[in-house]
Amino acid sequence: MEITISLTDKIESDEVIALYKANNWSAANKPQKLINALLNSHSLVTARYSGKLIGLGNAISDNYLVVYYPHMLVHPKYQRKGVGMKMMNVLKEKYNGFHQQMLTADSATIEFYKSVGFEKAGETEAMWVYEGNEH
How many domains, the chain? Predict the structure, then answer.
């Protein structure tokens, strides 16, 4: 399988929305806000198979100490094939040496994030005001 992973600043709305819908992510219900948010991220990483978008991740950062990874998703057809790991490794390499790399993981993704080097942050708990219902 020929998959291309790259940092980019170019994404197409239709392909992004299709990827989010395939993963049942509620952000797909706010397409313009989602695209604006992604394009205003500090970094975007994409995975493509024969040119088709099959994965996407983003990072928000102060550019010095802290980076937060809010979105990392792979089309269900391509999950468990190393795509997410490759995208996460590209982002972690870019932010190597930062004081803090952080994310929020739900139960379905905890083992994946552990496999790429993340660990539970002591006794902290994720908290949010959230309009979605997929978690």
Answer: 1
Q: Which residues contact 112 (CB under 8 A, 6 or more apart)?
A: 84, 85, 105
Is 89 exposed, middle or buried (CB count within 10 Å of its CB: 0-12, 13-18, 19+)?
middle
Let me know: does 94 contact 43? Beta carbons within 8 Å.
yes
- Residue 23 in any domain: the answer is yes
Question: Per residue in 86-107, pLDDT tens?
Answer: 999 999 999 999 999 999 988 8
User: Which residue, 134, 128, 133, is CA-closest to 68?
Assistant: 128
The answer as to whether 14 is a domain residue is yes
pLDDT in tens, 16-29: 999 999 999 999 99
Q: Which helix (H) or strand (E) holds 59?
A: strand 52-61
CB 55 within 8 Å of CB 87: yes
